[in-house]
Structures are given as C-alpha cells and as structure tokens.
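pinging the channel bc i need a second pair of eyes. not urgent but kinda urgent?? the chain im working w is below, pasted from the shared doc
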Amino acid sequence: MSTEINNRTALLHNQRNVPESTPQRPTMESGGTTGALLYAVVAAVLGMLQFGFNTGVINAPKQFIENFIKEQYDASPDLIFGVIVSIFAVGGMIGCPLASWVADKRGRKFALQANAIFGVIGALLMGFSKMASSVEMLIIGRFLIGINCGFATTASPTYVSEVSPLKLRGAFGTVNQLAVAFGLVGAQILGIDVILGSNDGWPLLLGLAVFLSAIQCVMLPFAPESPRYVLLVQRNEEQARALLAKIRGTGNIDDEINEMHEEDRAAKQEEKFSIGDLFRIKALRTPLIIGIVMHLSQQLGGINAVLYYSSTIFENAGLTVENARLATIGVGSILFVMALVSIPLMDRLGRRTLQLWGLGGMALASVLMTIAFYTYKDNFTMSIFAVIFTLFYVAFFGVGPSSIPWIILSELFGQGARSAAVSVGAAVNWFANFIVGLVFIPMTNLLGNLVFLPFTILLIFFYVFVYFKLPETKNKTIEEVTAVFKK
C-alpha cells in the first residue's frame, strides 16, 4: 500500500544526508519533546490520517454507491465504481511529485496548507455528490482527495522529519505510519451499517474527510516553518535559529545549526543524477530495477484489493453483509498492530529477511484463501477460515512489504541519485495501485473464487526475485551497498 509511505524515506534522507566518505561528528542534540514540536507534528500528521481514512472508506459503501450509479447511468456500475476507487491513485501519482516541487519552492508549511485546501474541496464534492445527483462530483472528489493524499505522503513525513530532533526522529517518523493505520480502522468502523454504512449515510461517510483537512487549515497557520528549509533554502539563519529555539524549547541549538550547514556543504559536493541517468548507467539501473520490483510487490501482491474490496471479498466467501463489514474492521486493526510490531523488527532481523517472510507468508495465505473461497458453499466453517486466512495475509503484508519498499531505495542509492530513485519508486507504486483498484472487480467477475490466483503467482515471482537479487542493507553503509552494484 502506497500507504506505507515515505516517512522512513524522509528519515533516511536526513540521517544519511552526507556523502559516504564524510564522517559524521558526534552532536549534542538540543531539546526534546515540547508543546510546539507536538503541535507541529499533529498538524502535519493529520494528512497521513486522511490518507488512511480515504484508503479504507470506499470499502463498506460499495453496494450503496453502485445503486447510486445505477440511478444515474445505464452503464455497468462495477466499471464506474472501479473508476471511483482507482482515480484516487491517479490523484496520488500527481500529488507525490507536486508535493516535492511545492515544498522546495514555497516551503514545507505552505505546501501542507495548500494541500489541506485540496482535501476540503475533494471531501465536499464527495459529500454532496448524492444530493446533486452527480456521479461526476464523486469521481472528481476522489481524484482531488487522491492528490491530497499523495501530496501528504511526501510533504508530511518530510516536515515531521525536519522539525524533529535527531534522537526523536525515528519515533516521530513512525507516527506517520500509525496515523495511516488508525485512519484506515476509523473509516472501517464508521462504515458499518449501524453507523454510516447505509444508503443515506454513505455521502456523509465520504464527506467526513472534510473535518481532517479543515482542522489542518486551522492548525497549520500557527505551526512553525521547517528551520532546515529556512536555513538551507531561504538562507535566513536568524529566522531559522528563532524557529528552532521555539521548537526545541531551548537556546542551545548551535550544534544542530552547524550540523545543518555541514550537511548542506556535503550535499553540494555530491554528484547529482537525473531519472534518465538511472536507466542509462548500469550501476544505477540494477538497484533501480530492484526498487521498482519491490514497489510492484507491494501493490501487485493484491493488498489494495483487500483494503478496497474486503467487504465484497468476505460477502463472496459466504458472510452476511453485516458480518462482512465487521470482519473488514479486523483488516485495518491487523495493519495497525503490525505497524507497531514491525518497527523493532526492522533493524533486528533486516530488510531482506522481513521482505521474504512477508512475501512468502502472503503467498501461502493467498493459496489458503483461494481454497477457502472455493469450498465455502454450504460450509460456514470455511467461510470463517476465509476471513482468518485473509487476516493472516494482511498480517504478513504488515511484516515487511508494507514499509520496506519505501525504505529500500534510500538504502540502495547514494545521495546524488536517491531523490530521483525515490521519485520513480513512488510513481510506480501509485500506478500499480491504480491498476489493482481498477481491475479487481472485473477480475472477480471473470475468475470468481480463483481471483487471488494471479496475485499468488506474482507473489511467488516476487519472492524468488527478492531471494536472488536483493542484498541485505542492515548495518551496511551506502558505500558498502552501492559497491555491490559497481562490480
């Protein structure tokens, strides 16, 4: 799930933002958790909560939205609903690079504020689409909220990483991931039939996203700009010092300011590579292919088919509509728990190990899911097992494939090529997300209970590829990793 976001990538950009040959001197970290820091983090992370909410919110009201489509058009409601689901990813593909450009040109805070406005407009269009009898408003609203969420997955982690002190950067970075999972669970809970999962309630359910963006619009004007941006881009050291002192709650900021200057000097000495260079130079092309396949494994393994359509999947497995929606809450809850579990495992077991465990477990679970789907008729026990195996599938996704693809490109490339490589990975991820969202329902109609078989085959391919091609990056410097591809 693109979901898993660029928080770790932003963290690595700043922690590893010096050339590999330049030793980093010990620093005296200024400050700790302060009210100003917490306020800034909360204001930014609401965008990631929005991303999780809009990933999960479309699942439960599928039946009612399709009824609404039937009232407006004679065309297949499955096809149009697929467009409504997948247009979110098209917006995400636009929002990601747009965020980088706006944040560099106008500042991190301005970028977050502008993005919140996109969220308000998109949510209002979705919320009033039924009242206006306009499927087009619903599609445009999902597109704009997709831009908002794609934008947030770049802008929010970058801002949080830059305002956080080094010793807390990892902890605050994980808040982004947890916010996505929490938003997903919240959307699934609100989508049950006794709350807003009804024919009258679904426009309000989708429109609730307006509150998250509106709160951001209110909070962000009072949040500080990133001191790193003010110092290194705007070249205003006096203002940067004032902002940093306020965020840290102390005037002891000289070491941190000096460290920013050192990173800036080091970055200027690093050779820069374009996206075209990544494809032309073999030493860069090989890790790029690995990174692209890693991102494809996240999406084409079928996880967003579950996140977007789990209610439909569970209904097809023999559950009632009400029970299917309750089971869907379990999907988001498992992702939230695994977000917590995977954090300490990442550096203990290594990226390659966790990715293999995740892909292998997903492949096995998808086989078991297919067996349960195929044998559930007149067998309620197999319907229950279908849910259990689906939750295992989601749990294994949370072990590694949920976050490692976002990390790995930052660890396979030196600083000069890292930004271009991460941009390619994000574009591939969102595009694959779009494809899965668009084709899953037609695939279900074509393959029936064997719908996860193509995902199983792809998961096996991704497992074999990772086993033979992905080097372990745990406890290795960038020089050590990139040397592997230069041989």
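so The CA atoms of residues 207 and 277 lie 43 Å apart. and The two ends are 33 Å apart (CA to CA). — does that match what u expected or am i reading it wrong
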